[in-house]
Amino acid sequence: MASHIRTASLAVTAALTAGLASATPPAHAAPPPGRAGPTHLVFEKNRRDPATSRVRLVQTGTGRVLADYRAGSGQGGTAGRDECVRNKGWLPDGTYRVLSHTTRKKGGRDGINGYAIHVGDKVCRDGRTQRTALFVHSEMRSDGAQGIAVPGRDSPYRWDGDGDYRSLGCVKLAPADIKNLFAAAQRYGWPASLKVTK
């Protein structure tokens, strides 16, 4: 009798264990369709031409590039390649925390509008100069639409051409590219950090 009870008890335990195992996915299970797991952004500087640098959305751990775009940072020239020159130089090398993202930033005429990713402040290589108010953004109105062309002038609400890849230090993408980046981040997972490298 004890033998039958022990056998029955083992059978029940085995069934329960099997049920739990099937309900809990293995730790290495693939992400749901369209999800890549943790991601981060990489801004790769082009020292020869900062306006033809690259921004990539990358799967953390594997290094798989999920999206890749032309981008710029800084004003170009010698000062534009100096990470310690505020409002002219490109972003300092290093890792930044992504603080927030929005498709409707309202910065007004002298600010950033529409699609924008806010990243943390960074002290440059001199150990003193802090770069602040840093974003990955474009040029558009706060609703994401393009503003009206202004003959003979560069509009802050409109992408007017290659010159708009220049910035006061932020990373800038063309409007269609930043919208595509937001869609890719929504699909694969929002990046937690931005890595800036040469």
From TrEMBL:
Is Phosphoprotein among this UniProt entry's keywords?
no
Q: Where is the L,D-TPase catalytic domain?
A: 61-185
Which pathway does UniProt place it in?
Cell wall biogenesis; peptidoglycan biosynthesis
Q: Can you tell which superkingdom this protein's organism belongs to?
A: Bacteria
Q: Which GO terms describe its molecular function?
A: transferase activity
Please name the InterPro entries in this protein's record.
Answer: LD_TPept_cat_dom, Transpep_catalytic_dom
For this UniProt entry, which residues form the secretion signal? 1-29
Q: Set out the biological process GO terms recorded for this chain's protein.
A: cell wall organization; peptidoglycan biosynthetic process; regulation of cell shape
Keywords in alphabetical order, please.
Cell shape, Cell wall biogenesis/degradation, Peptidoglycan synthesis, Signal, Transferase
Put simply, this protein is called: L,D-TPase catalytic domain-containing protein
